[in-house]
Every structure is written in C-alpha cells, then in structure tokens.
Amino acid sequence: MSVLRVSPSRALAGEITPAGDKSISHRAVILGAIAEGDTQVTGFLQGEDTLNTARALAAMGVRIDGLGTPEMRVHGVGLRGLQPPPNQLDMGNSGTGLRLLMGVLAGQGFSTTLVGDASLSKRPMDRIAVPLGQMGIRVEGQGEKCAPPVTVHGGKPRPIEYHSLVASAQVKSAVLLAGLYAGGTTRVVEPALSRDHTERMLAAFGADVSREGCEVSVSGVARLSGRLVNVPGDTSSGAYFIAAAVLCDVAQVVVHNTLLNPTRTGLLTVLDRMGADITRENETSQTGETVGSIRARTSALRATRIAGDEIPSLIDELPLLAVLATQADGSTEIRDAAELRVKESDRLAVTARCLEAMGATVEELPDGMIIHGPTELRNAALDSQGDHRIAMSFAVAGLIADGQTTITGAEYVHTSFPGFVRAMRSIGADVEEAQS
Ligand code: S3P
Asked: Which residues are identified as catalytic?
C-alpha cells in the first residue's frame, strides 16, 4: 500500500516521454501470441495490467523472451496453438486484458477461468458473454452481470453481426478476436467510434479487416503473421503532464513520442476548445499509428460541453478533464458518460467526491457532471478507490491546491504508469510516493 503526497508546484518545465501505450501493448502481445512466426515488440508497457496479459499468455505455452522488459520477442503459436493453463488466469486490475483474452479463448479447444482483483471482480463481463453466446460459445460468470471469475468454454465460434449498445473498444475487440476463429465474416457495429487499435493491428498482422464508419468486419478463419510492433507512448499517460502544464502558473512541458490516433486525442480537441495553449509537433507514422510531440503551456481556460460521440475519444481522460474544468471560467458539462460508472471505480461518483473534498463546486448527474469554475482548490486527504486514473488526476489537482494533498491507494498507479512519480518530479512537480 502506498500514498502519494503532492505539494503545490507553481512552476513546471521539462520534457518527458510517457511509458508505452497500454491499449497497444495488450494487443501487441496478444496478436503476437496467436500469430505464426515471431513478433518483436519494442516499448512494451511495464505496467501490471499489460504484464498480467503477457504472463497469462506465457502460462498458455507462449514463449516470450524478455518478458519483464520493454523489448520482447513473442514466439507465436498460431491461432489455435495455446495450451490449457495449469491454473486460473489472474488478470489483476485489467478489464482490457480480461475482455480481450475472453475473445481469444472463445476459439481454443479448452475451458479457462479468468479471475481479477476486488475492482475487476465487480465489473460487468456480460457485455462480452452475450456476443460470445451468440457465436455459440458458453461463458459462465458471477451474478446478473457475469462478473469474474469467468469461465470461457472455448470451441468453434460462428460468425455474427453484432450491434453493440456501448461504444467500447473492449467489446469490439473481443468479438473481432473471436471472429478470427469463425468461418465467415464477423461484423461489429458500435453506436460511436471507440479506439481502433485492434482493427489497425489486425490489418498489420495480415488479417482481412474492413471498416466503414462505426462498422468493422473481420474474415475468418484468419492467419496472422508475426511482425515488428513499436509501441508509442501512451496518450492517456501523457495527458497528466499536459494538464499539469496547462494548470500551473509558469509552465511549459513537452510530451514526446506520444500516440496521436484520432480515436484517442479527444482531450486535445477539448483543450483547444477551452482555449489551452497546446501545439502538436513532429508528427510521423509508426506501425499504422500517428505519433508526435505535444507542447503545453500555462493557459487560461473557458468552460465547455463534452458529450455524444466525443466521449469515447477521451473516456479515460474524463476525471482529469473534470479537474481541468475546476479552473475554467464558467460551467463545464460532461454528459453521455455513464460508462465511467463501470471502470476501475465508479469514476463519476469518485471524481465528484474528490472534487468536493478539494472545494470545487460540482453536480453529479446519472451520466456525467457539471463543474462550476473557476474555484481555488484546497488540499485534501483522498483515496484512489483502487483506480489509477483517479490517483493520477488528483495528483495533478494537488499541484494547484493550497497545501499538501495525500492520495492513498497510490500503488494502483503501477497498473498503467510505473514511472509516473519520477516523470512528474523531472518537470519540477513536488510529488512523492511513500509506503503507507
Ligand atoms: C480500452 C478501452 C476502453 C478504456 C480502457 C482501455 C482498450 O474501455 O477505458 O482503459 O484498450 O480497449 P472500453 O472499451 O470498455 O470503453
């Protein structure tokens, strides 16, 4: 157990490179495992979530050289080459790892049980069990929402056309991964476009994938070929440094080698609208993804409305946007974000309570919140509620509070960004992690 101690830090300057993108790291090791031939991965995120996914694949007989380092060689076993694991697969805190592997396990010739920590054990897996059921694959879980432990009884999935009720890349990806094993075309239609890394990476590995708007199809039975995947820096991890620069009194920070996929950069679009001083530099293409640097400076912000199709492109940045909104002139409204209630914590409730504890004026809504700004923040004793994004968002809030803020449950930061505190300190932020 650890605690973050954050003291006011008015001046920030420096350049950072965020750790590897979590979404792309999960997908790189999963596709590498079920491809034919080797996949070389560079920049693999050393977070607990992605390491759990890699370990789960290793437990199913995939040889991964360099596991536990950012440079790995994954020796693919082919689509149906996984072996039954000796034990249940422990996915820790990670919804992405668990849900994506459910898709792959749908096509194996054995049954597997996946478990998680207290937070993951409360999260709904019916959103995966339902489409897999339509594909003829039986999934057992706990209660109405099919929470973990979940058992996937692998077999031969049938192709389906699935209209998802939620814009969720995890749902889309699980169905597409199961679709690799189905003879015919599996199509997923989502209500708004969610992050598209799975479809991009599947195409790069040689799968027959086609996309049009919010529809994506894959043809099976597929054959994937191992390849090189360079994992860019995580947009969502870089976001804390951009926000810190925007909020602090005298600040200029550059975030290098960060993923700029348009399905992930909603925060930048909203910050532009709020009047923030941010610029993109040196954009290039890397393994089918756009990568570049972002320069952010101290800014005066105005309130905005964040809703509708924009939500999936900034889903993980909403607690941070709520913190930013406390410093904007006017009332910022966040709507259509009920999905936040089923993340690592109920992020609408937890964000609203933490903001209130820091003296912000916030109204929680069933699908969002309204934040009335600007307000000076006061220091507070907070708890991450087992949620890395809450811990890091409120570490940023602590930089502009009137005294030392503490955040317990800081160990969850290590699920996605083990170098967070070091990177914050390197730009002059007074943040430390101590055992509690
Ligand atoms: C992710 C998708 C998002 C996001 C999560 C990572 C992914 O979840 O919140 O952190 O890698 O596919 P949903 O797709 O369930 O919204």
From this structure: 316
Question: Torsion angle, CA of 139/142/145/147, rounded to 10 degrees?
Answer: -90
Residues of the chain with CATH 3.65.10.10: 2-20+233-435, 22-230
pLDDT digits (tens, 9 = 90+) for 243-274: 999 999 999 999 999 999 999 999 999 999 99
Task: Report residue 286's pLDDT band, with 50, 70 and 90 as the boundaries.
Answer: confident
Q: How far, in Å, from the CA of 108 to the mean position of ligand 1?
A: 24
Q: CA of 344: how far to CAs of 95, 140, 385, 386, in Å?
A: 8, 21, 8, 7
Using CA positions, which residue lies closest to atom 16 of ligand 1? 168
Ligand 1 midpoint to CA 391 (Å): 18
Ligand 1 site, CB within 6 A: 23, 26, 96, 168-170, 173, 194-195, 315-316, 339
How many CB atoms lie under 10 A from the CB of residue 283?
Answer: 10
* pLDDT score of 39 more than 80: yes
Of 263, 267, 321, the C-alpha closest to 290 is 263
Say which CATH superfamily domain 2-20+233-435 falls into. Answer: Enolpyruvate transferase domain (3.65.10.10)
Burial of 104 (0-12, 13-18, 19+ CB in 10 A): buried
* CATH number assigned to the domain covering 22-230: 3.65.10.10
Take atom 9 of ligand 1 and give the residue whose Cα is closest. Answer: 316
